[in-house]
Write a structure and sequence with these properties.
Number of helices: 3
Radius of gyration: 14 Å
Length: 71
């Protein structure tokens, strides 16, 4: 059912203060409100939305450390 499809919202994408909330299409709006996610944000829908924790492609802490090393 479409309402059970994985979904994720990404606010401040690729910035040190990036925030991600995950859920399903049925509950992502409530999760966004609870996490105070505001526009603009990316909405990702489908199986790939559930891979954020597995892939861990973006780590704001490592970006901040890199900035300190190059400053």
């Amino acid at each position: 059912a479409p309402s059970t499809r994985p979904a994720a919202l990404v606010a401040q994408a690729t910035l040190p203060d990036q925030r991600v909330v995950q859920g399903t299409l049925a509950d992502i709006a409530g999760a966004a409100v609870a996490a105070n996610i505001q526009s603009p944000a990316l909405l990702i829908v489908g199986d790939v939305a559930a891979l954020g924790a597995v892939l861990g492609w973006f780590n704001p802490a490592s970006l901040e450390q890199e900035q300190h090393l190059t400053a």
